[in-house]
Amino acid sequence: MTHATATADLMRPPFPAEPGAGVYSNKLGMWVFLASDVMFFTALIGTYIILRFGVSEPWAQPGTVLNVPLTAFNTFLLICSSVSMVKAYAAIADGKKYFLRTIPGTTRRDGGLKFWLLVTMICGAAFVGVQVYEYIKLVGHGFTPAGYREGSLLAEHAAADAVRYGAATAGLYGSTFFSMTGFHGFHVTCGVISMTYLYFTKVLPEKYSSQDYRGIEVIGLYWHFVDLVWIILFTIVYLI
Amino acid sequence: MTSVAATAPAHGAHHAPLGFWRKYVFSTDHKIIGIQFLFVSLFFLLVGGLLAMQMRWQLGFPGTPMPGGGLLPESRASGGVILPEYYIELVTMHGTFMVFFAIMPLLVGVYANFLIPLKIGAHDMAFPRVNMASFWTALLAGLIMLASFFVPEGAGRAGWTMYAPLSARPDLSGVTLGQILWCISIVVLGLSSVMGSVNYITTIINHRAPGMTWFRMPLSVWALFITAILGVLALPVLQGAAILLLFDQTIGTHFFDPVAGGQALLWQHLFWFFGHPEVYILILPAMGMVSDMIANGSRKPIFGYHSMVFAIIGIGFLGWIVWGHHMFMSGMNPTLGSSFMISTLVIAVPSAVKVFNWMGTMWRGNLRFHVPMLNAVAFVAMFTIGGLSGVFMAATPVDMQIHDTYFIVAHIHYVLFGGSLFALFGAITYWYPKMFGRLMSEPLGKVHFWLTFLFYNLTFFPMHVIGMGGQMRRLYDPTQYDFLKPQQPMNEFISYSAFLLFAVQILFVVNFLWNLKQGKKAGLNPWEDNGLEWSLPSPAPHGNWERPPTVYRGPYEFSAPEAGNRDYLPQHEKLPTDREPASATAPAAGH
What we know:
The complex is a heterodimer. By secondary structure, chain A is mainly α. Chain A has 7 helices and 4 strands, in the order H-H-H-E-E-H-E-E-H-H-H. By secondary structure, chain B is mostly helical. The radius of gyration of chain B is 24 Å and the shape is globular. Chains A and B meet through helix 2 and helix 6 of A and helix 1, helix 7, helix 8 and helix 9 of B.
């Protein structure tokens, strides 16, 4: 700890100062930003709720248009990435900067920051990849932001079974589905890009230590938030 | 412990000299960024004013060629006569520029940036580079909005509130690209606002100097703090709404188009859920700065400091639950309407608390009517008129009569021009020495103030009358209705007053620009004020303080007996009786 006393501890609030929020500024700033992001998603989700429950015609039933098992797998991927993010955070808090290291006296290997952040990045990128694949499939079937494309497979289904496929509300369904999941995907993409940037500029050069790992904690906050939003979106868009 | 304290100043002071580009253009210094915002938003204020002048020509003299109208393309003014399509473009863009690119950046962009670190004793913002990005994105947004004039079909035509489905469907508004650019510009501006607000909130919470407790903060900082909270929560909603509108315009979604199952009213709810907090974003910083100027001009402590703070917080909170009062006539559920009416009327209470406190501050004060004080007093008077006419329209039965008339136009200009802009004229004069090291001319400032005050009232007060006479807002030609024809002389009168009002702003421009280089050099503390910023040289250096100042008292200790011969007692001056503030202990290890 001699090193820690020789420099200002950056994991703490700026000092000297009046008692602030009790956390360093980057973390506080991220919390405030997340509050604003909550309001952004509130606008999107609120729009969805008002439009969906404001129409008298039936909405497409779950599982008719969207591929729920595929997205359930995607949800699992994103939750896994949250777990690996916690592991990355815990690793650097303990000072484990390495990739993998064999635990002395055993054959088991222990992951460090470099390993767990990479896992998080891969899971996040895979999530975006699966979402892009899903979009391509959906548009191929005729599900677009404007509704079911004329002459497409889905338009035929909807003509045959207007209730199950929500033929009258397809336009609103497409509008809300693509805007909500699209902006979530955009957030995941931003997160993966930020983590990649940190990985090459800070993690690989081993700039983080058990004394200062602010970047990991702050990006972790963002990542868990994005994960939480997805769990809400998955429930209200895919499952009900 | 000691080693922590010893290394702490290193992250603020001792800035290396920077080249021209880093110092004045891509600057991370909060003061330079504030000044950049000042020049850019004054430019947009001028643009908005020019648009208003063209509107006033059309309203005063409908059907006659506008001087200089020949310069406009035939698609906008035929033979110099403004066409209806161009008129609605003027209405839309005047509102948009004034609200989003003039008043809002003038209050928040300029003064939150410039004042917060100076007044709380910080070296800079918590995130200086984010701050720089916030300025450049705001400029980008403004340029996108400006560009929409020059695209085919011209700028947006759905009013600054962009009501759907007019805004959502190009076949209704006749504009495709202009409406799209409006949405894009607003999304970019929202980004800038959020970056700015995150910075202001974090800086105020975490970067106050020792001794600068919450209740020793100047009211301007309190107001900017609450404004930043409103900004961080309100702007994303507008951003979301603008993105959905953009999707309606471009990729064929149906959020706001009732023909395809969407809800036009949804846009109004989203817009005003942002829009009403926005109203307080546009007035709270003005209230805060006016409090500072009035205490200074009265040489008395501000009356009811704590009640002022709680009034700001109260207004900030109530601002979230009143948006429906913009929609009484929209077909919204009337029961919902009455609850919005009550919550709106409640806002009059904290607003009145503030007005009475300002009067209580001036009461029996040793008044100094310098230019900032004159403008601040005008703010109180004009805000009172605007606030009272606001109570009229908060009452649903009255609003049904005056909704969408010039009464509303008069109201918004009484709070936005009479309120915010007068406060800004005061604030610009007041903090000009700290920005540029020189004083603005006092006699010229007084002439500008009195002429502006006169012509401002001659312009906007009669609008109450013609509004109650039934003249609709956004009306292209008042003479097209017989029942409005008797009011036409009044419209002409308003137009003449408005032209004069615009003309006397030349005095302000001259006063502002001339004194940048020629003004009288200002000392440290030309207004004899208590704020921390007045302990710095004018202009203040990059990094502000070598060592963070220590604060011993609140900002309004005027005419305190213990100050001796002076009638002010700066926050950072230590009297023999003052104790050092308890140093903030570093938090225990762990998280």
